[in-house]
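Re: the 178-residue chain
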Amino acid sequence: MVLAYAELLFGTIFLLSGTAFLCFPDRSLKILRVGIRSPTANWICFAPALIWFLWYITQLGEADFGKYKDFFFTFFAMVGLIALLHVRDFLVVRGACILTLLTAHELLEAAYMENDIARLWMVSGIYLSIVIAIYWGALPYRLRDFLDWFQNKRGFFYTRLLGILLASYGYKVLATIP
C-alpha cells in the first residue's frame, strides 16, 4: 500500500467516525451499545478478522514456525468457528480489535522507511489505536463501561467532544497528505 493511500484511509476513518459522534451523538452511542452484543455484528466483525488472520497464517515462512502452519491454521480455524457459533457477548469488540490490529500492521508497513513528515501524524494515531485495541481486546467489557460513562456524564457533551477530537485529527491527517 502506498503511504498516501494509507493516510487517506486512516484520515477518512477518523473523520467519518468523528463526524458521526459530533452530529449524531445519541444514535452513535445507541448503535455501539446495541452492537457490542449483537449476533449479526459478531459475524460482521469477527468473521473477516478470522479470515484475515488465517490468511496471515498461510503466509508464515520457515523462520516464523512455517512448518507448523497447517496445525496453526486448523487449530485457529476451529477455535474461531467455535467462538462464532457459541460466544455471544463482546465477540464483536474482539473482532473489531483484531481488525484494528491487522489494519494497523498494513498501515505501518506503508509508512515504514518513508521520510514524509505527514506520516508522523498517521503513525501516532495508529499506535494509540493499537494500545486501545489491545486493552479492549483483553477486557471487552470495559468498552461497555466506557459507553456507560459517556451516557452518564452531562448528556452528550463528552460524545460531541470526542467527535470533535476524532474529526479534527482525521482532518489533520487528510490535510497533510502530499
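DSSP finds eight helices and no strands in the chain.
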